[in-house]
Amino acid sequence: xxxxxxxxxxxxxxxxxxxxxxxxxxxxxxxxxxxxxxxxxxxxxxxxxxxxxxxxxxxxxxxxxxxxxxxxxxxxxxxxxxxxxxxxxxxxxxxxxxxxxxxxxxxxxxxxxxxxxxxxxxxxxxxxxxxxxxxxxxxxxxxxxxxxxxxxxxxxxxxxxxxxxxxxxxxxxxxxxxxxxxxxxxxxxxxxxxxxxxxxxxxxxxxxxxxxxxxxxxxxxxxxxxxxxxxxxxxxxxxxxxxxxxxxxxxxxxxxxx
Length: 258
Ligand code: KIV
Known about the structure:
The chain is α/β, with parallel strands linked by helices.
């Protein structure tokens, strides 16, 4: 039987790979019906805790949210973001990845970086840890404004090099964040593992977005974010109705008490 990872990889050039983020069980449970991969992203730092950068997210936060997400997933691949400063060398990376996998029962981890983390990725893969790569814009390293990647030929060459290095190091797929469209197309063609785009065009093998963004829970005005539904409006509707019924004593009626 194909492992979950081989199954995801076998979609390359056949059908799109559907990926979303989750930080808790109830959301994960609904996503799981449609997704191939659910990422517990360190974006939870800005989305849930209002942090200015993902650098403030720590391992314990990732573990606690991931344990909750685990409860909601039956079929999708579950990947956990390794937060900033938890994989500065291969020994630290292995120790922390083992802790995350052991405590959350996730299927693998995501690390940001290209050539700089080559040795770390090789070591983790050698130790049988499944790694999802992440290049292009890497929020753990960004200072100031987020811009897209692949403007200059130098940048194009570096990103292509990084994609190939990660492929050779053994990652099972690579997230391309805000990578210029023609470059995403070339990379997707030139590597044999799937590319998962975020703001990187439909040439990628799959797409990922932050779930809170697509549901309209955040106020994101990032170019690549599309609001597919406005959950905030639904929440307001439900809460207003609850308030009105409590005031009018329509709720709780006998059916709802003991
Ligand atoms: O932290 C995150 O949520 C991510 C993705 C959206 C790729 O890294």
